[in-house]
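Can you make up a polypeptide sequence alongside its tokenized fold?
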Amino acid sequence: MGSINKIAVLYGGSSSEREISLQSGLGVHKAILELGFESELIDYRNIRDLRELKNFDFVFNALHGFEGEGGKLQQNLDDLKILYSGSCSEACKNTWNKKFTKEILERNKIRTPVSLDITFSKQIVENGLQVNSFDRFRPFEYIFLKPEEDGSSVDIFKISDNKSLEEAFQKCTYPNRKFIFEEFIDGREFTVTIIDNECLPPIEIITKNDFYDYDAKYLSDDTVLKQANLNREELEEIKMTSIKAFNALNCSAWGRVDLIQCSKTGKFYVIEINTVPGMTSHSCVPKSASFLDIPYREVVGKIIDASL
């Protein structure tokens, strides 16, 4: 970081993840100051021209949601020759879109749950789960309904029958857009932080909720993030799978890979990859680093180093 002194922390924005991004940005900003650099918090919602960021040596992207993770921001910063944290435009585009992610994982023979992409509309609800399109899900007791593009478990529902499908449509914040139906795999949920192509200790996520939803991630005090208790072979497999998925999607610098270990087979399935993970007090990245006694500010420093 020798040539870096003045760092902009980009946060906020206008997506459904704004509040989480504000928390992440505040934490990162404080850490950068503790590391001895100049830092300025910049709400993406207030930027009129990205060329304003050329006044800084580096941009730490703490902007969650489509504005910070969809790839367009990264492309614009590349065009302006502005250094920034995290993955390139292509990687962000492919990880932000769950359909693209799954296609790339499958091409690289990396396990991921069976899925079907649809436009979640009233017609889907009226037709129900009995149409032929859902034949691939017949053996499963549940399926998940997820937006094709969104984060922080916004608008994710666990579907078991036509009634729960209709309830999901009524509760959905933004229906009538692209969604995926995804096989429900019963098992333990894990997440693996990667910084500079190295895995930090995997975290097992334990929640009283039906799954690791928005409430469990950011609001509930009952969610437990603990160092994963895995044997040597399992630990090797989860790390190998995470790195392989991370590289297959062309990610770099830092990120987080979410996985499920099937209770029946013990195999790990990649659920998704996050190129701008949360950095709040409830977030998995700083928690994972704490298992190695790495303080928050040092994590931020490592992310910056890995991005240069």
User: Anything to note?
Assistant: The chain has eleven helices and 13 strands. The chain has a mean pLDDT of 90.
